[in-house]
Design a protein that fits this description.
7-stranded mixed beta sheet; alpha/beta
C-alpha cells in the first residue's frame, strides 16, 4: 500500500542518515548530534527530504520520459530544492542577519534561479511553456526570505501560493497543448504543480508558517557557502526574486516621475495659471491670413498626408498608478514578468498597446480593460465589474477568482481560462473570432475542458421575425 511504502521510505532514509552520522562520529572522535548532524536529523529537515522524495521524484520521473530541455530545467528545479535544504540547515545554526546579510546568505538560491531564467531567454524553444512554468515556479522558494510582517512579502504560506500562480499560467498551456498529444507532458505539468501545491505549501504550513526560525546563539552569516555564484552574477529578472531583499516593489510607481494625465492634473492643482507658457496667436499666424497657404492641395502634400498614418508612434512603456484610481500598463514589449500587487477593488486596470508580455494582477480590482494588445497574457485574481478585451490579437486571459462579466470585442484569437468561481459569469462577444474558453474539470485531477465559442450565426425569418442560431462546425 502507498502508506506502507511511504513509511518504509522514511525509515530507510532515517537509518541511512544514522549510519552516515555514526561513521562520521567515530572517524572524528566526536559525538554524534552536534552541529550540522543535529540539523540533518531535525524533523523539519527530514520532512523536507520526504517532500523531495515524494513530489520532486514524480517531476523527475516524467521529465526523464520527455528528455531534452524539459529534463534540463527539471534538474535545475531539483538543484534549487537541494540548495534550499542546505540553507534550511544553515539557518538553524545562524543568527538572523540584516538585509544585506540575508542577500548574501541567499546567493546560492538566487544563482540557481538565475540559471533557470536564462534557459527561457533567447530564441523561443518548442518547450518554452515548460521552461517558463519551471523557472517561474522557483520564485516560490523565496518564502525563506520572509523576516516579518514589515519585510514587504506575503506570509510564507500565501507567498508560495501566489508565486505558483504565474507558473500556472504556462502550466495550463501545456495541459491544453498536450492533452491529446502526449500524456508524459501532462504528467509533468501536473507533477510540477503538486510539488508546490500541496507539496511545498503544506511543508511550510507545518514547519515554518511564520518564516524561518534563526538561531539565537548561532554564528553570524558573514559569507555565502562555497557553492555561491560569483558576485558578478546578474540578479534574476523575475519580480519576486529580484525584490526579495528590499521592501520596495520593483514596479513601484510612487518613485517614478509622473507622466500622462497624472502630470497634467498635478500641474492644474499646483495653482499656476492654466494658460501660462502658451504663446499668443497673432493675426498673421492664422491660416486664413497666411500667404503661403492656399485652398489647393498639391499632389506631394496629399501623398504625405496619406502616408503619415502608417508611421507607428509607440509611446514609452508605462506601469503606473494614476490619480490613485487607475493602473496604466502601456507599450510593454517582451516583458514576461509584469506585476501589479498593491491594488484594491476601487481601482481599475487599463492595458494598452502591449506585445509579447505577461501581466499578473494579484489583487481583486473593479475593472480590467485590455486594448490593442498582441500576444498578451493577463492573469488576474478577480474583478468586481468586468474584464474587457478590445481590438486585440492572440491574447490569453486567466481569471483565478470571480468575474461577473467578460466581454470580447473586435478581437482575433482569445483564450479564456476560467476558475470555478467565474463559471457563473456571462461572456459577451462581438466582431470576434477564434475564441476558446477553458474550464476546470470536475475533479482536481481531471483535464481542463475546452469550448470554442461560435463565430458564425444563421438567421431565419420565421413568424414575423428573425430567429438567430449559432452555426456549429464538426471541427469546432
Amino acid at each position: 500500500m502507498p502508506m506502507e511504502e511511504k513509511l518504509i521510505q522514511r525509515l530507510e532514509s532515517a537509518v541511512t542518515r544514522l549510519e552516515a552520522l555514526s561513521a562520521a562520529g567515530f572517524r572524528s572522535g566526536g559525538s554524534v548530534g552536534a552541529g550540522d548532524d543535529t540539523a540533518v536529523l531535525d524533523p523539519s529537515i527530514i520532512a523536507f527530504d520526504d517532500l523531495r522524495s515524494q513530489f520532486l521524484g514524480k517531476v523527475l520521473s516524467a521529465a526523464e520520459k520527455i528528455g531534452g530541455q524539459v529534463l534540463d530545467i527539471t534538474k535545475i528545479v531539483e538543484e534549487a530544492f537541494s540548495t534550499q535544504r542546505e540553507l534550511l540547515i544553515r539557518i538553524k545554526e545562524t543568527k538572523k542577519p540584516d538585509n544585506s546579510g540575508l542577500a548574501e546568505f541567499l546567493k546560492p538560491l538566487n544563482g540557481v534561479i538565475v540559471k533557470a531564467t536564462k534557459m527561457t531567454e533567447g530564441r523561443r524553444s518548442d518547450f518554452f511553456n515548460h521552461l517558463k512554468s519551471a523557472a517561474d515556479s522557483l520564485s516560490a522558494l523565496a518564502w525563506i526570505a520572509y523576516t516579518g510582517k514589515d519585510c514587504g512579502m506575503s506570509m510564507p504560506i500565501a507567498y508560495v501560493e501566489e508565486s505558483w500562480q504565474m507558473a500556472e499560467f504556462y502550466s495550463n498551456k501545456i495541459l491544453v497543448e498536450f492533452k491529446s498529444k502526449d500524456p508524459n507532458h501532462v504528467e509533468w505539468a501536473k507533477a510540477l504543480k503538486e510539488l508546490y501545491l500541496p507539496g511545498l505549501r503544506d511543508y511550510v504550513k507545518s514547519h515554518y508558517p511564520l518564516g524561518p526560525v534563526w538561531s539565537a546563539t548561532g554564528k553570524t552569516a558573514v559569507s555565502a557557502p562555497s557553492k555561491a555564484p560569483s558576485p558578478s552574477a546578474p540578479a534574476p529578472p523575475a519580480p519576486p526574486p529580484a525584490s526579495l531583499f528590499s521592501s520596495e516593489s520593483p514596479q513601484a510607481s510612487s518613485s517614478r516621475p509622473k507622466q500622462g494625465m497624472s502630470a497634467v492634473f498635478d500641474e492644474i492643482n499646483s495653482g499656476k495659471p492654466v494658460t501660462s507658457g502658451l504663446k499668443k496667436v497673432t493675426d498673421d499666424m492664422k491660416t486664413k491670413n497666411r500667404a503661403d497657404r492656399t485652398g489647393v492641395v498639391n499632389a506631394g502634400e496629399k501623398e504625405a498626408r496619406v502616408s503619415s498614418p502608417s508611421v507607428s508612434k509607440t509611446g514609452p512603456p508605462k506601469l503606473e498608478l494614476q490619480m490613485g484610481r487607475k493602473w496604466v500598463v502601456e507599450n510593454q514589449v517582451g516583458e514576461k514578468n509584469l506585476v501589479i500587487d498593491d491594488c484594491d477593488t476601487k481601482q481599475s486596470v487599463y492595458v494598452y498597446g502591449c506585445k509579447g508580455s505577461v501581466l499578473q494582477i494579484k489583487g481583486k480590482v473593479n475593472n480590467i480593460t485590455i486594448d490593442k494588445c498582441t500576444k498578451m497574457g493577463v492573469v488576474f485574481a478577480g474583478v468586481v465589474a468586468a474584464c474587457e478585451v478590445v481590438n486585440c490579437n492572440g491574447v490569453e486571459v486567466q481569471c483565478q477568482g470571480s468575474a461577473p462579466t467578460i466581454s470580447v470585442d473586435n478581437t482575433n484569437g482569445c483564450q479564456l481560462y476560467l476558475n470555478k468561481d467565474s463559471l457563473e459569469g456571462s461572456i459577451t462577444t462581438a466582431k470576434s473570432s477564434e475564441i476558446n474558453v477553458l474550464v476546470p474539470g470536475a475533479g482536481p485531477d481531471d483535464d481542463w475542458g475546452e469550448h470554442a465559442l461560435p463565430q458564425q450565426y444563421a438567421h431565419v425569418y420565421k413568424d414575423g421575425h428573425f430567429v438567430t442560431t449559432p452555426v456549429s462546425h464538426s471541427g469546432a
